[in-house]
Amino acid sequence: MLMKFETASSGHSEIAVPESGAPFNPVEDVIYRRRSVRLYKKKQVPEYLVRRVIEAGRFAPSTGNSQPWKFIVIQDQKMIKDMTDHIVKSCQSLVKMTDYFSKPGTGWRERIVNFARLFWQNEFHPNPLGAFTQIAEGKLGVWHGAPTVIIILIDQRAPSKPLIDVGVAGQNMVLSAHSMGLGTCWVGFVEFLSRSYKWRKRLNIKSPYRIANSIAIGYPKGTPDGYVKRETKAIDWYDENGQFSIKY
Ligand SMILES: Cc1cc2nc3c(=O)[nH]c(=O)nc-3n(C[C@H](O)[C@H](O)[C@H](O)COP(=O)(O)O)c2cc1C
């Protein structure tokens, strides 16, 4: 039985504030060492660990404590395969659609995509588009062979910006999973299931809920390669003396 935290008592008085230059604490270690895992062992994640990960999501902060989420855990391998097949087919259709009028060298695909971007700036961003093509061609997995998938639903009645709330909950889950030796990868392509009546029915997703995102979870196989570069963006800083500076 999972221990549930029904009241969050603040433990601030017990936490020492680090001196400048002190080494990272265990929470910071988890934040900096987490990577998206795209290769998993077949071994299933036991229920108690999945529940522990979800508990970390349940305790996330949210606008006005609205908690606008709901989780679906899928450990049925046939179902994960069926969902994957649906997403691969959707990507293939999308790639075909944008290629429809294209002749090599005419740049039509780019023109169609650029036009679509006027209306769906984020969806038709070059990054996901590149990944659509890779998924369509079988070069990129969907849930990367993870034995467990958690779909995060969003309650569309929630106040303000519930997508931020579910993102915060999901990141709590991803970090807690990493802290327990599990690997995770956010998988936004689950969105394709949201557009399918058949899948909404099969997953019993009803209004006011809709799919927000998903997380693949399992035991990592090997170590994720390479270093994922982070940009250092300028920070506008107004200090306590009223001085403005740009810091990095
Ligand atoms: C909301 C969200 C959706 C994502 N969707 C996918 C996805 O569909 N497939 C995938 O392989 N990675 C996905 N990622 C992982 C990102 O590609 C990854 O976080 C980024 O490249 C940084 O790498 P890192 O997580 O290893 O630090 C997603 C990440 C986020 C936050």
Protein model, in words:
The protein has about 250 residues and is α+β, with helices and mostly antiparallel strands. It has 2 domains: about 25-75 and about 140-220, NADH Oxidase (3-Layer(aba) Sandwich), CATH 3.40.109.10; about 80-135, no CATH class. About 40% of the residues lie in helices and about 15% in strands. It has 8 helices and 6 strands; from the N terminus they run H-H-E-H-H-H-E-H-E-H-H-E-E-E. It has a 4-stranded antiparallel beta sheet with strand order 1-2-4-3. A hairpin with a 5-residue loop joins strand 5 (about 235-240) and strand 6 (about 245). Helix 1 crosses helix 6 (about 160-180) and helix 3 packs across helix 5 (about 125-135). The longest helix has 23 residues, at about 75-100. The protein is globular. The N and C termini lie far apart (about 45 Å). The model has no long low-confidence stretch (mean pLDDT about 90). The site of flavin mononucleotide has 10 residues, from strand 3.
Strand segment tally: 6
CATH-defined topology of the largest domain: NADH Oxidase
What spatial order of strands do you see in the largest sheet? 1-2-4-3
CA(first)-CA(last) distance: 46 Å
CATH class of the largest domain: Alpha Beta
User: What is the helix/strand order?
Assistant: HHEHHHEHEHHEEE
Radius of gyration: 21 Å
Q: Percent range for helical residues?
A: 25-40%
Number of domains: 2
Output the CATH homologous superfamily of the largest domain.
NADH Oxidase
Largest sheet: 4 strands, antiparallel
The CATH architecture of the largest domain would be 3-Layer(aba) Sandwich
